[in-house]
């Protein structure tokens, strides 16, 4: 187990870095101090902000652990007739603001502690953008790209069947995440509806999932929502960081849903995409990469490698590319100390969940590189999920413009809350975003109290 040192801490107050794991809550709730563990890092960031805010002790201990951790094993018949056993998780972190909410990922590296961390981040996100949901997250340990379409369907249906007793349209509402999409949501919704006693309100049972295809109640604008949210927050915050979106140079890590939509929207606004890194390699083009053409290439070839006339570069060269904004939009923990040292950007807009390690954070703080933190920058997806749920519940459909405007209002207000807390507490933007989220949760506990 790694031991935290003073140099690892990232949260700053009055420009002074705080040590990791200082809070006594770690001992009280029985959590170890391991600086390599994403869940413990996330709890530490949350508790640092909670202490600055003087959030009551009882709320701090409640938020330090998820309410429920569900782990299931289920068999699935493969196309060759053999059976494989799969492991899945659903973590329900907190539901003081409303039903648990959060994505389900299909990935070979899904682990309980990572899912717990992502569930806690969801609690922070929904609170920061002020939507009436709590935080949850789930996952199945599998490689969706190695499964046939039928195998993927059977994994999806068996997983949702295995957790069907623990979710519900007004209790816990899953959504897409890494490795899942609208089709997987359709299988989830159909399976849940078939298994529940809902023959008189079958349409309403489909509300158990958001991010569905529009044909079965999905919202217009949901697919691009996370990318749109990254852009909305950037537009709100960029001027005071001395950046003009029109004409700015940016790079992206990951060209999946979040990365490609962020790039395409920024491209339409006159910003220039100059470098992209993904699992197939890194490309660079100083004149600017056509974001739409690149999306077509990725859809066809599975990654950015081999795209058009762009130059193939090394990972280090990608990070060293001079840009105004870098958007990490892939998996967690990609930017460690070394990468943070290489990066030549003014701002990091975190499109992915937790892409920066505490050591990376520290380097950014030392170098004066600003971070628009994930709980703010990537909250657009869950915000439009909320709009989908509202539309389903009230049997109406919003047009695309209505969705975009409502999303923009939530993102701009969340960005302003974060800026305000940064001023009030004289801290970094990540800590400020947590403080803004926690303040809201604190008020809810203050009026609701704790049962009995
Ligand atoms: N998986 C997305 C996230 O992490 C969306 C969650 C949702 O829409 O509920 O924010």
Chart the SSEs and their pairings:
Elements: E1 12-13, E2 16-17, H1 25-28, H2 38-53, H3 57-63, E3 68-77, E4 83-94, E5 100-107, H4 112-128, E6 135-141, H5 149-162, E7 172-176, H6 182-195, H7 202-205, H8 225-237, E8 249-253, H9 257-268, E9 272-278, E10 281-284, H10 291-301, E11 311-313, H11 315-320, E12 325-328, H12 337-342, E13 347-349, H13 358-367, E14 370-372, H14 374-377, H15 380-394, H16 400-425, H17 429-448
Helix pairs in contact: 2-4, 2-17, 4-17, 5-6, 8-9, 8-15, 8-16, 9-10, 15-16, 16-17
Bound molecules: glutamic acid.
The site of glutamic acid has 12 residues, from β5 and α15.
Please characterize this protein's 3D structure:
The chain is of the alpha/beta class and 452 residues long. The chain folds into three domains: 10-63, no CATH class; 68-206, Rossmann fold; 225-377, Rossmann fold. It contains 17 helices and 14 strands. It has helices spanning 25-28, 38-53, 57-63, 112-128, 149-162, 182-195, 202-205, 225-237, 257-268, 291-301, 315-320, 337-342, 358-367, 374-377, 380-394, 400-425, 429-448, and strands spanning 12-13, 16-17, 68-77, 83-94, 100-107, 135-141, 172-176, 249-253, 272-278, 281-284, 311-313, 325-328, 347-349, 370-372. A seven-stranded mixed beta sheet has the order 11-10-9-8-12-13-14, sandwiched between helices. α4 packs across α17 (429-448) and α8 packs across α9 (257-268). The longest helix is centred in the last third of the chain and has 26 residues, at 400-425. The structure holds glutamic acid (GLU). Glutamic acid binds next to β5 and α15.
């Amino acid at each position: 187990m790694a031991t935290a040192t003073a140099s690892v801490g990232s949260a700053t107050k009055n420009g002074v870095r705080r040590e990791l794991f200082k809070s006594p809550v770690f001992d009280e709730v029985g959590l170890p101090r391991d600086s390599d563990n994403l869940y413990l890092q996330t709890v530490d960031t949350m508790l640092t902000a909670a202490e600055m805010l003087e959030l009551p002790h009882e709320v701090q201990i409640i938020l330090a652990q998820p309410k429920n951790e569900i782990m299931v094993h289920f068999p699935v018949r493969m196309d060759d007739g053999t059976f494989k056993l799969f492991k899945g998780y659903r973590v329900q972190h907190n539901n003081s603001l409303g039903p648990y909410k959060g994505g389900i990922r299909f990935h070979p590296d899904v682990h309980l502690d990572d899912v717990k961390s992502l569930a806690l981040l969801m609690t922070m996100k929904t609170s920061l953008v002020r939507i009436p949901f709590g935080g949850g997250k789930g996952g199945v340990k599998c490689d969706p790209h190695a499964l046939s379409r039928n195998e993927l369907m059977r994994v999806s249906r068996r997983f949702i069947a295995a957790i069907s007793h623990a979710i519900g349209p007004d209790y816990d509402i899953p959504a897409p995440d890494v490795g899942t999409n609208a089709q997987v949501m359709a299988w989830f919704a159909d399976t849940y509806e078939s298994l529940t006693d809902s023959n008189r309100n079958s349409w309403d049972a489909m509300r158990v999932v958001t991010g569905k295809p529009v044909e079965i109640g999905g919202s217009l604008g949901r697919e691009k929502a996370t990318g749109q949210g990254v852009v909305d927050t950037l537009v709100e915050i960029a001027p005071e960081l001395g950046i003009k979106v029109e004409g700015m140079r940016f790079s992206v890590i990951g060209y999946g849903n979040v990365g490609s939509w962020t790039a395409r929207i920024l491209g339409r606004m006159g910003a220039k995409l100059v470098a992209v890194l993904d699992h197939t390699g890194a490309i660079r083009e100083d004149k600017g990469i056509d974001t739409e053409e690149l999306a077509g290439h990725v859809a066809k070839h599975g990654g950015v490698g081999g795209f058009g006339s762009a130059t193939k570069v090394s990972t280090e060269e990608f990070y060293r590319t001079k840009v105004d904004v870098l958007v990490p939009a892939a998996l967690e923990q990609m930017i460690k100390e070394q990468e943070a040292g290489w990066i030549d950007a003014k701002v990091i807009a975190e499109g992915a969940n937790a892409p920066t390690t505490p050591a990376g954070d520290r380097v950014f703080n030392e170098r004066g590189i600003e971070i628009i933190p994930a709980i703010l920058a990537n909250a657009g997806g869950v915000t439009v999920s909320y709009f989908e749920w509202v539309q389903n519940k009230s049997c109406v459909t919003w047009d695309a413009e209505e969705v975009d405007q409502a999303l923009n209002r939530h993102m701009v207000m969340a960005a302003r809350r974060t800026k305000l807390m940064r001023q009030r507490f004289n801290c970094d933007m990540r800590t400020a975003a947590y403080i803004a989220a926690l303040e809201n949760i604190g008020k809810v506990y203050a009026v609701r109290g704790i049962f009995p």
